[in-house]
Amino acid sequence: ISYRNQLAFRRFKQVGDLRFSRDQIAEFALVDDVALGATYTCALTQAGRVWCWGDNLSGFLGDGSQIDRYFPVMAMTPPGIRSISASTESDVCAADTVGATYCWGPLYGSGIATTPVLKQGFESGVSLIEGGRQHTCALMSDSRVKCFGHGSFGQLGNGAAAPSVLPVPVSSLEDLSEIGVGEATSCALRRDGRVY
Q1: Residue 85 has pLDDT above 80, yes or no
Q2: What distance in Å separates the CA atoms of residue 11 and residue 5, rounded to the nearest whole number?
Q3: Are 56 and 68 in contact (CB under 8 A)?
Q4: DSSP 4
Q5: What residues are paired with 126 via a beta bridge?
Q6: What is the rounded end-to-end Cα distance, in angstroms, of the chain?
Q7: How far apart are CA 34 and CA 86, in angstroms?
């Protein structure tokens, strides 16, 4: 049993008695990706929609409320989502098929958003998005990386140990194929197999 119900369980009681429509059950059975926050979980379905559950005090679920949910609710993202990320203490983000990225929850440097808002600097071109503790990085369609958020440990990769509300390009890295983001670290894999 998870701490704040992020695994879709009530305390000591499974959610099997909750009512879902047949369409919701069918869609939720086809999950492409899962993003785990500290106290909540979001799932991306094959239909391109995001469903979240767990702690919602800071708007992590993106459903327009701040009410904890013990069962999945659909985040109010536009259709056609293809990548999701969950930071443990900051933004939840989702990128659509053209790379426009929408974030919600405790937006870094911008307060709480209970519904998804288009992230300035990520209006297009995002292929993959990953969240850490208080920073988020995106692999762009040009095979470069941009990051925003807390940067005191250099995790934004722009040569400065400072935060940034707007995405900043990672210095001197190109031809990247994968990224990974930890609590206060960021890594990237180049197509030639080198890791940075």
Answers
A1: yes
A2: 7
A3: yes
A4: T
A5: 140
A6: 36
A7: 9
Count helices and strands in the chain by DSSP H and E runs? 1, 16
3-state per-residue secondary structure call for 33-90: EEEECCCEEEEEECCCCEEEEECCCCCCCCCCCCCCEEEEEECCCCCCEEEEEECCCC
The helix (run of H) or strand (run of E) holding residue 23 is helix 22-28
* Tens digit of each residue's pLDDT (9 = 90 or more) over 86-119: 988 889 999 999 999 999 999 888 899 999 999 9
Token pair of 176 as six digits:
């990247």
Supply the pLDDT for residue 155: 94
pLDDT in tens, 63-73: 999 999 988 99
Q: What's the rounded Cα separation, in Å, for the pair 72 and 42?
A: 8
- Cβ atoms of 146 and 121 within 8 Å: the answer is yes
The amino acid that residue 61 corresponds to is L
Q: Is the pLDDT of residue 8 over 60?
A: no
Q: Measuring CA to CA, how many Å separate 111 from each of 66, 87, 90, 185, 186?
A: 14, 15, 10, 23, 24
**Type of residue numbered 148:** F
How far is it, in rounded angstroms, from Cα 173 to Cα 145?
8
14-28, 53-67, 85-99, 131-145, range with the lowest pLDDT: 14-28
Give the strands of the sheet with 145-149, arranged side by side. Answer: 126-131, 135-140, 145-149, 164-169
H or E element, residue 25: helix 22-28
